[in-house]
Amino acid sequence: MSSDQTSQAQSKPWQDQVLPILKRFDVKHIAYVPDAGHSAAIKQAEADPDITAVTLTTEEEGIGYLAGAWLGGQRGAMLLQSSGVGNCINTLALAECARFPLLMLVTMRGDWAEFNGWQNPMGQATEPSLNLMGVKTWRADRPDEVEPIVHGAASMAFNGDASCAVLLGQRLIGEKKWVK
């Protein structure tokens, strides 16, 4: 990446950096379960005529969808929340055995300042669970970390046929509160 691209990326809010990075890696498919933390990338993907944005009913569908896109010669990425990682554990064996590029961007729950106790077990188990299934993980907790970490994970996934996940910490999104 040139120094001009780096300074432009860092001047944008981190949420607006995600889709342009994926597009630089020729990602044509975004599979997602709706999530406020990914809302900017989802809206951008839905508005982009070069991207097929697919709403999933459950996260594990995304792994099969992305495997199919890869078999068809196209790249994709999945946007999900840490609570959805638990739904993917068995299906991650497909990526491990078939060695296709799998890139997941995971917004974290059960993390810093979590208000919903139901999110804590999977939030705390997300990274070790992914690692046990052969997924390489990196975590971004500050806005300036997002671009280089997403870029590096995409490079490893798409150039090395690896399963990779970027964990986007709760501090990036901000503290959530119960709404009455």
Description of the structure:
The chain is an alpha/beta fold and 180 residues long. The protein has one domain (22-171): Thiamin diphosphate (ThDP)-binding fold, Pyr/PP domains (Rossmann fold), CATH 3.40.50.970. Helices cover 48% and strands 19% of the residues. The chain is built from nine helices and six strands; from the N terminus they run H-H-E-H-E-H-E-H-H-E-H-E-H-E-H. It has helices at 3-11, 18-24, 39-47, 60-71, 82-88, 92-98, 120-132, 143-160, 170-173, and strands at residues 27-32, 52-55, 75-81, 102-107, 136-140, 163-168. It has a six-stranded parallel sheet, sandwiched between helices. Helix 5 packs across helix 7 (120-132). It is globular, with a radius of gyration of 15 Å. The mean pLDDT is 92.
Task: Write down the domain tally.
Answer: 1
Stretches with pLDDT under 50, minimum 5 residues: none
β-strand number: 6
**CATH top level label:** Alpha Beta
CATH-defined superfamily: Thiamin diphosphate (ThDP)-binding fold, Pyr/PP domains
What percent of residues adopt helix (DSSP H or I)? 40-55%
Largest beta sheet, briefly?
Answer: 6 strands, parallel
Helix tally? 9
Widest sheet, order of strands:
2-1-3-4-6-5
- Taking Cα atoms only, what radius of gyration do you get, to the nearest Å? 15 Å
| Overall outline | globular
Order of helices and strands: HHEHEHEHHEHEHEH
CATH architecture: 3-Layer(aba) Sandwich
> In what range is the share of β-strand residues?
15-25%
Mean pLDDT level = 92
Cα distance spanning the termini: 45 Å
Main structural class: alpha/beta
* CATH fold group: Rossmann fold
